[in-house]
């Protein structure tokens, strides 16, 4: 079956999660006067715990933003309002283009020229989708995007297959006509495959590729890439 739609995860796929986290960590450290390494370790531990809650469906997509901020505040021993303010200040001060991976815009341009419809299926943690949507506009990503679906708006999170199926419903396409690209094996690849989509895992460190440029397993509808520059090639092999 021909692929008509390409859906993307945002953080770790189109925008650099590590740079965003580092900016928030620096903001919190400077504001609170707490050692930057301590803040970083606490933020990453909260992130890990919240991802587990998200994956097992123990909290919905809207509540998880408030919960993650509350968990971070509790472990730092401060009021949650200071977390919210630090995150807001970070988004106001950061250069949006510094968060772009070098292959993001060029790959979206190629997909658009090839006639693919493009969308976003994103989860949220420490900040809501309103912040991510703003960055997508400011970086120029949104001009390639037909639809954006976020967990805090639907109150459904990846890997729950329902968020992928809702994406398909909004675009009036069948799951087998969509290929999803993301950096989480469980949330992106597992969720997409469970809905009937094909899936591409982006492994920017190349640890799963064993020296190969990319891997396509057509019988399973799965691909692995290190760079978004190989999307067009792997879609062709998986179609």
From TrEMBL:
GO terms for molecular function: hydrolase activity. InterPro entries: HAD-like_sf (IPR036412), HAD-SF_hydro_IA (IPR006439), HAD_sf (IPR023214), S-2-haloacid_dehalogenase (IPR051540). Gene3D superfamilies: 1.10.150.400, HAD superfamily/HAD-like. Keywords: Hydrolase. The keyword Hydrolase applies. Belongs to the HAD-like hydrolase superfamily. Coiled coil: none annotated. It comes from Ignisphaera aggregans (strain DSM 17230 / JCM 13409 / AQ1.S1). The keyword Hydrolase applies. This is HAD-superfamily hydrolase, subfamily IA, variant 1.
């Amino acid at each position: 079956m021909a692929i008509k739609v390409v859906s993307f995860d945002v953080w770790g796929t189109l925008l650099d999660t590590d740079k965003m986290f580092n900016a928030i960590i620096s903001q919190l450290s400077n504001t609170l006067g707490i050692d930057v390494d301590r803040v970083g370790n606490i933020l990453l531990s909260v992130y890990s715990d919240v991802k587990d809650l998200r994956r097992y469906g123990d909290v919905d997509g809207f509540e998880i933003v408030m919960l993650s901020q509350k968990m971070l505040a509790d472990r730092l021993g401060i009021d949650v309002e200071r977390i919210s303010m630090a995150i807001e200040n970070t988004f106001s001060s950061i250069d949006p283009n510094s968060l772009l991976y070098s292959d993001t815009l060029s790959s979206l341009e190629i997909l658009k020229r090839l006639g693919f419809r493009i969308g976003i299926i994103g989860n949220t943690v420490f900040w809501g989708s309103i912040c991510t949507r703003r960055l997508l506009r400011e970086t120029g990503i949104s001009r390639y995007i037909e639809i954006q679906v976020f967990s805090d708006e639907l109150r459904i999170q990846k890997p729950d297959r329902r968020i992928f199926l809702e994406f398909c419903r909004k675009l009036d396409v069948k799951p087998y006509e969509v290929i999803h690209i993301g950096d989480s094996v469980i949330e992106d690849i597992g969720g997409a495959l469970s809905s009937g989509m094909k899936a591409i895992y982006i492994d920017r460190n190349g640890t799963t590729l064993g020296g190969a440029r990319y891997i396509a397993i057509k019988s399973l509808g799965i691909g692995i890439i290190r760079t978004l520059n190989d999307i067009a090639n792997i879609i062709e092999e998986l179609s």
